[in-house]
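Continuing the batch. This is chain 6 of the set; chains 1 through 5 are on the previous pages. Same settings as before, nothing changed between runs. Recording input and output for traceability.
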Amino acid sequence: MSLKAALLTLITSLFLMISNGTQAQSAGEQPSLRGYTGQALGKTLAETLKLRSLGVATNTSSTCASFASAIGSAAFAPGPQRKALSLIALDTRDDTRPVVDSFREKDGVALIFGGQTSAEENYALTKAMLSGLARRHYAGALFIHQTVWLSGQVTRAADEDPILTAYLAAKSNLYTASRDAVHEQVWLHQVQVRDGEQTFARAVGRIPTTRAAATPLEHLQLGGALPSKSHEAIAVDHARRLARS
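Output for chain 6:
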């Protein structure tokens, strides 16, 4: 095996471990790392998007709960604005309509569906929440968990729901997080879903975080259109680019 081929194999294996959240971290380290990243993201969301209130919907996995709780606590610390934050954990058996209704008046909504929950469970929650928000003409800022965005679940949901398709195509305040691996930076990005494709529009703010705390975002790429690929396919593509560099 050539050195380049060996490098490609090694990079791909490491990248897949990161994408699937199977890094050699202790049970305590994973929630801690997501807590650090969530705090940085929450602060950036509140300050960059000028949010006075935020609704956060997450799944029931421990990693997403840590991430979502940190986002909320950093965005709105205890004090006069404590009622401005709503944090709700959901599973696929839950009716999302009351949650959507409770979020209608929020300046921003963050959908944090990733972690240890299966892709199909996360997709069911993503589609239900997005479809509900679309039907209630939610006008506030909408943040999509980077794992959901990267895997193409937003486009998939839009393809299956004409009302959601029109809603997302017209929405200019849709966001996700992305990572610039070259410069070791994490960004808040405005994104678009139009004509069956999802794309990064522009970076609107840098998310201050250490390299260790950025680990849950390690699989993200900065800029360009993202096709609906599996994490495995994206990992291989990224590894090939690194091997060529």
